[in-house]
Automatic annotation (TrEMBL):
Residues 761-816 form the PapC-like C-terminal domain. This is PapC/FimD family outer membrane usher protein. The keyword Signal applies. It comes from Pantoea endophytica. Keywords: Cell outer membrane, Membrane, Signal, Transmembrane, Transmembrane beta strand, Transport. Pfam families: PapC_C, PapC_N, Usher. The keyword Ribonucleoprotein does not apply.
Length: 838
């Protein structure tokens, strides 16, 4: 039943509702005085006092026996809509109680110790809650919600946006197909045109808790009248969450994502403690990639040969922060500029040292067969395992072992939580290998890592690490390559020392934020490589210009004796809240460029940037960048032109398809194969929906998908009430749920669409339904009958059927005409015969 204010009734004779208002007021007021209410009908202005049904108002919170689709809200957390049965109480047949099944109870987040004590009645179908004093149930038919107040003593640990495993939703079965495509066109003044179409994505199937995924990438390149094409299915795997262990099981092609040993690829199975299943404050850090684009550019981030991220960026410093926190190891970053130049560098992803809480054991185990970078099988079996055991409050023991063919390695270390001083871990790894040509190698590798958030100083050391590797140490990949090619290890590229640090600092009194990342790698028999980049940003006000920002970014990269330096200065002057002027100056080994650009955010879905720049030789260039956030795709357009040098253009599109038994929808996405939420608007199209800043609309079939939602974090979706059409009413405009990784969640907004009008219902014998009778549409109350059969109805559509209920049962049915009367005053008084339900 939709709730209206007095002003929402577009007719003047409101006296007709007065008896009903009095009855409802009496019922509400007397609920505080008695469990059952007996109405004094002599005080009510009703001509026919014998034809009254006040049964549904006679007891506070009373529900007629029957089944109701209701959302269950536990304290402030909403559970999925359930079919809740209300039955006469086993203690008092004049009272009804909600029948909470064992399945419902298991999803309420109750502690197992209390859940095991619950007994059941009605053939073991309905829970007795008397074992847990303090639990209060309150059904609300108007909002189709069953409110549960549960003392915290009975509930598992949870935070403001994190639910315990018992409340995680595995989603529904379905098919997904996500893609990320990029088209680049270049026409240099000297040379031939070139066109490149590249893409990557994932195809997958969800079945119960299992997620099957197949990853692909491909390119099609045309230049000099020649065409080259590649397409690869580069990884197949299935995975699921193992909730009782807080772990993730993966079967198929995988990377040995080790915190102790070097990365390797294999085909097999692994069981890994999953940090993403922990509360947010106990999780690691997600990788962050920073760089500077000199022109409109395509940024590609890959890990062990598989593309993780690919998108267009505008000419400015960029920060990519939406990578999964499950990624470990070295990321390869390639920045392809539209002027044809290419930057490449690597980023070490790092997390909190591998520590565990007291008594907790975190682990990683893998078995299978080793492969090369393209997952081609090799004749070496793999067994690997590692652990972190919280042996006391602050101390953890770390260790692991790795074996493949005639290669063996073992590691042992300790971690220490230094409380206000951060966390520290020290590990030592020893390897032993016997190669096919009777060469034996044995050596050690030692690492020290540290992390800390200095909240009082607004400083975050995301990661600081040092590793020393002996000359005779051999990694698994070096052993496999030497075994495959029957090579003698010459140590020409063997690692020696590695230094890594990532630091963030806020100077709030100055309005300055600073970032520094540094990586330095030495080798036994070749020149060292290094890369550092830093940035300073300051926000300030100048007269009427608010939030003016100044940014300084610099980097230096050294590789094989070649040094590349770059400095980027930027001044951003906002004009209002959605547009502004940006002045840039950058100087690198490739030359000096000064630029001026104008940007404008036209609305929440569209933005553009127009720019011009001049290089050291006074040659000018022009560029444009446009972004559109659609319901089905995220699209970026860019173009550059430098007279006498080149012309270029680029287009990128990111999106996907999700199909289930409930329907299908196209949608935009950033992370292919990620967790998503399908929303059902009951066949109503173009319904505006929002979630965490993202916005979309239901398609013509009444389906919408929000992709890239968080795993193991409570997600919320709500209707954009300000944009909702006047003929649509929502019983539950807000939905929330917590999904496991890769799940396809499903929720249904309870909506009513149709005309609002006044009607008179008449029975077949010429009489009227009793005062207080309910009019139902699809089981939902859309009106309550006043005296003489008058009723205000909402959600009315041509030729639709509605049920009329009194005395606890559906008594008859009304049918609306093909053409509904249109009268803005509301005084239609449409006469509707109520006939026996077929």
């Amino acid at each position: 039943m939709s709730v209206h204010t007095r002003n929402s009734f577009p007719f003047q004779n409101n006296w007709r509702l007065r008896p009903l208002v009095i009855a409802l007021s009496l019922a509400f007021f007397s609920s505080a005085l008695a469990e059952e209410v007996e109405f004094n009908l002599d005080n009510m202005d009703i001509s026919d006092r014998e034809n009254i049904d006040m049964s549904q108002f006679s007891r506070a919170g009373y529900m007629m026996p029957g089944q109701y689709d209701m959302a269950i809200k536990i304290n402030d957390n909403e559970s999925p809509t359930e079919e809740v049965t209300f039955l006469p109480s086993e203690h008092d047949e004049n009272e009804t109680v909600a029948c909470l099944t064992p399945k419902m109870m298991a999803g309420f987040g109750l502690k197992k110790s209390w859940l095991d004590k619950v007994t059941y009645w009605n053939n073991e179908k309905c829970a007795r809650l008397d074992i847990m004093p303090g639990i209060i149930l309150r059904p609300d038919l108007a909002s189709s919600t069953l409110y549960m107040s549960v003392p915290q003593a009975y509930i598992e640990y949870q935070t403001a946006n994190w639910d315990p495993p018992s409340r995680w939703d595995e989603g529904i079965a379905g098919f997904i197909a996500d893609y990320n495509t990029n088209f680049n066109y270049s026409s240099p003044a000297q040379g031939s045109e070139s066109r490149e179409l590249s893409g990557n994505g994932v195809v997958g199937v969800n079945a119960g808790p299992w997620r099957m995924r197949a990853f692909w990438n491909g390119t099609h390149y045309t230049a000099n009248n020649t065409k080259t094409s590649t397409f690869n299915w580069n990884q197949y795997q299935a995975f699921r969450a193992i909730k009782p262990w807080g772990a993730k099981l993966i079967i198929g092609q995988n990377d040995l994502a080790s915190d102790v040993f070097e990365n390797a690829r294999y085909v097999g199975a692994s069981l890994i403690s999953d940090d993403s299943q922990l509360p947010p404050n106990l999780r690691g850090y997600a990788p962050e990639v920073r760089g500077v684009a000199k022109t409109n550019a395509k940024v590609t981030i890959s890990h062990a040969g598989r593309v993780l991220y690919e998108s267009q960026v505008a000419p400015c410093p960029f920060i990519i922060q939406d990578l999964s926190d499950s990624i470990t190891g070295t990321l390869d970053v390639k920045v392809e500029e539209q002027d044809g130049s290419i930057q490449t560098f690597q980023v070490e992803t790092a997390s909190v040292p591998y520590l565990s809480r007291p008594g907790q054991v975190r682990f990683k185990a893998a078995v299978g067969q080793t492969t090369d970078d393209r997952f081609h099988l090799q004749n070496e079996r793999l067994m690997a395992g590692e652990f972190s055991w919280g042996i006391s409050n602050g101390w953890s023991l770390l260790g692991g072992g790795l074996s493949s063919g005639k290669y063996h390695a073992a590691s042992l270390g300790a971690g220490r939580d230094l409380l206000s001083f951060g966390a520290l871990a020290l590990t030592a790894t020893q390897s032993y290998a016997k190669l096919p040509i009777n060469q034996t190698r044995s050596g050690g590798s030692y690492s020290l890592s540290y992390s800390k958030r200095f909240e009082n100083y607004d400083t975050q050391v995301t990661f600081a690490g040092y590793r020393f590797t002996e000359k005779s140490y051999l990694s698994l990949n070096q052993y496999l390559e030497a075994s495959r090619k029957h090579l003698v290890i010459r140590n020409n590229a063997a690692n020696k020392q590695t230094y890594t640090v990532s630091l963030n600092k806020q100077f709030r009194t100055l309005g300055v934020s600073a970032f520094l990342n540094y990586n330095y790698q030495t080798y036994w028999n070749r020149q060292a490589t290094s890369r550092w980049n830093m940035s300073f940003a300051r926000y300030f006000d100048v007269g009427n210009f608010k939030n003016v920002s100044f940014n300084l970014s610099a980097y230096r990269a050294q590789n094989s004796g070649i040094q590349d330096d770059g400095v980027f200065l930027s001044l951003n002057v906002p004009f209002g809240t959605s547009s502004g002027l940006n002045i840039n100056a950058q100087n690198s080994d490739a030359g000096q460029i000064n630029s001026l650009s104008w940007y404008n955010r036209m609305d929440e879905r569209n933005s553009y940037r127009l720019g011009a720049n001049v290089d050291r030789q006074q040659r000018s260039a022009y560029s444009g960048y446009y972004t559109h956030t659609g319901d089905n795709t995220l699209t970026n357009y860019s173009a550059s032109y430098k007279p006498g040098q080149y012309r270029s253009a680029a287009l990128s599109m990111q999106g996907g398809l999700t199909a289930t038994a409930h329907g299908a929808a196209l949608h935009r996405t950033i992370i292919p194969g990620g967790t998503r939420l399908m929303l059902d608007t009951e066949g109503i199209s173009d319904v505006p929906i929002k979630s965490s800043g993202a916005a979309t609309h239901s398609n013509k079939f009444g389906k919408a998908v929000l992709a890239d939602v968080s795993s193991y974090i409570r997600n919320q979706a709500h209707l954009d009430i300000n944009q909702l059409n006047d003929d649509i009413e929502a019983e539950s405009p807000v939905l929330q749920l917590t999904l496991t990784e890769g799940a396809i969640g499903y929720r249904r907004f309870r909506l009513i669409k149709g005309q609002k009008l006044m009607a008179v219902i008449r029975l077949s014998d010429g009489s009227y339904p009793p005062f207080g009778a309910s009019v139902l549409s699809k089981g939902r109350e859309t009106g309550i009958v006043d005296e003489m059969g008058s009723v205000w109805l909402s959600g009315v559509n041509p030729e639709m059927l509605m049920d009329v209920r009194w005395n606890g049962n559906i008594q008859c049915q009304i049918t609306f005409p093909k053409v509904l009367p249109i009268d803005e005053s509301g005084e239609t008084n449409l006469l509707l015969p109520c006939t026996e339900k077929e």
